[in-house]
Amino acid sequence: MSSDKETKNIRASIILEIIGMPPEHLLETLEDIIKNIDNEKGVSVKSKKINEPVLIKEQEKFYTTFAEVEIEVDDILYLAIIMFKYMPAHVEVIEPELIALTNNGWTDILSELARRLHGYEEVARVLQIKNSQMEKKFRELLPEENKSKEINLQEETEKKKRKKKK
Description:
By secondary structure, the protein is α+β, with helices and mostly antiparallel strands. The chain folds into two domains: 10-101, Alpha-Beta Plaits; 126-165. It has helices at residues 23-38, 76-86, 103-141, 144-165; strands at 10-20, 43-50, 54-55, 63-73, 90-95. Strands 1, 2, 3, 4 and 5 form a five-stranded antiparallel sheet that branches. Helix 2 (76-86) packs parallel to helix 3 (103-141). The chain is extended, with a radius of gyration of 23 Å. The N and C termini lie far apart (55 Å).
């Protein structure tokens, strides 16, 4: 293989896990997810095996199941996109044994990674701000006698945090 050629047609196996209820819904959801993966640009589903949902022992009413899906992607970027978009529990590259990637290929993958990480960071910031706003409103709604208890509890929590850092 020439060093300036990228590897194409990569075959991989991914495992998708889900938890929820009712069990029939889990099967339908996995079917929908697999259909969506198959409709992704540069991706085709070659085979799938969806396992029957099982009750989670520690959680009443909740079920878990997983699907083993074999896919073929036109190039490694599409596999990276599948990883970020569907977050499989496991991925295994089946073939080829060696994957060549040009600097443009690396640029595409790293740019996608950066784009996704910035998106997650934005969501985290928004959630932190909303959480602070809710805490402030909650404190405003507390009766006066509970506010002093809340302040004492916060001070104790901060002291514990400082001790752990030392």
